[in-house]
Design goal:
By secondary structure, this protein is an alpha/beta fold. The protein folds into 2 domains: about 90 residues, lambda repressor-like DNA-binding domains (434 Repressor (Amino-terminal Domain)); about 190 residues, 2-Layer Sandwich (Endonuclease, Chain A), CATH 3.30.870. It contains 13 helices and 6 strands. A hairpin with an 8-residue loop joins β4 and β5. α2 crosses α6, α5 packs antiparallel against α6 and α8 packs across α9. The longest helix has 19 residues. The radius of gyration is 21 Å and the shape is elongated. The relative contact order is 0.12.
Length: about 300
Amino acid sequence: MSVSARPVDVPTLEYYLAASARSPIAVRLVLGHLLRSLRKAAGIDAETAGRSIRSSEAKISRMERALVACKMIDVMDLLTLYGIRDVPTRDRFEEMVRVAREPGWWHRFDGVLPDWAGKLIGLQEAASVIRTYEVQLVPGLLQTSAYTEALVRQAYPMSSPEEIEARIELRKTRQMVLAREEPPHLWAVLDEAVLHRPMGGEQIMRNQLRHLMAMARLDHVTVQIAPFNRPGCITGGFPITHLRFELPALADVVYLEQLQDAEYLDKPEATQNYRRVLDSLAQAALTPRDSLELLANLVR
């Protein structure tokens, strides 16, 4: 569908709702983008907008950056301030606010899901392309249940059996994004060290490598191995996830995970820099065909 250049006509809003409906986080991001576009088009500064909703410039910034779920009364008051008064358009914004405030499916795993990780799941649900570079572990979307269990038991040795099962179920449910009717394209570059780290023992790792091979043969999954003997495969030594979206209202996002936190980057200069890093890694790594051959040799 061709999206109009006007950010608030009814067909455009319906397109955004339909295209981002899988993820409340995506709808929240679209809503923030539209509110910022309308404010700027109206020539109204954030301080004035904040006063109109009985709040501050900081709250407008949080709403426009999708750091908070927008309240219905705030959005309706802002639309009035920005000159958006026709009922059909306001109705679509109301629906967008309702969807954006709905909990994602991952909220039922709140007991084992860190606060900062839920956003990544929502973004993956909305992404059209997921690019990832891993230096230690098989990417979560490509793990077998046995590999995940071994990883969970090592990372959370004090977890109860119920917590372990919940973490495994969370990972399995996340992986369903690759099995849906219109899945994102997953492009994963793995440091060769990932293949030689026997998580869970030899048999579990052998089955994991077989699973990697099976996934790599899917049309929407690309797996490349960055071998030890190619200096161009050396980067900062940390995992990188880059997400791209079909929706023009959503900017690329880079996800960088640390031990107890994560960083989300969406400024173009930052995301483009990480995209260049991933491009360089993909160019230096083995081709997808040669990567499959390497995996097959390790399984033998």
